[in-house]
Amino acid sequence: MADDDALKDHLRAALKRTQQNILWKLEGLSDRDLRLPRTPTGFNLLGAVKHIAQTEYTYLGETFSRPWPNPDELITSAQITADPQADWYATADESTEDILGFYARVRTFGDETIRELPLDAVGTVPHWPMVTASVTLGQIVVHLLIDITRHLGQIDIVREGIDGKAGLGEANPNLPEDHDWAAYTAKLTNLADGTR
């Protein structure tokens, strides 16, 4: 049991760290910067957070039969049928504060699931094929960490492209200080072009 508790604490800490890094990447940006599509497929920072919040609820709520207290905040299957990207952008009626507030509540809700259930608790992922839909809490937390860390990588690149803010996180940027990034990128460009 002690090993399970230690693993659960480790997983909770990793998830919290990832969630905090996502929020750090949004700091200081205007509402327009958060909403503006940054890729040909429309990837935008605020939409990514909305998607991550919906995903975290689905995996740590619905999968384990824990209903969301305010169902009108969730994207429905009918909305996804009408617009397959409905969870990837904030509507005109949704403010940045709405999305971030929703994500804060989802994070608390999901953490309660992890805290209250054993890692071997069994749930059913509603949108997975029945042959793979039965999962344990431990499996789903690992799956969720992989999923949202992938999105954090997308957010990292987009944020760096907006204003140069880069790094692993506020407490540990994980980048050399006072580095000549222009010279470094010029060096890499020369290498890519086959010049010296």
UniProtKB/TrEMBL annotation:
- Highest taxon of source: Bacteria
> Sorted alphabetically, which InterPro entries does this protein's record hold?
DinB/YfiT-like, MST-like
Q: Name one Pfam family in it.
A: MST
Annotated protein name in UniProt? DinB family protein
| Species, as recorded | Brevibacterium metallidurans
Q: What is the lineage of its organism?
A: Bacteria, Bacillati, Actinomycetota, Actinomycetes, Micrococcales
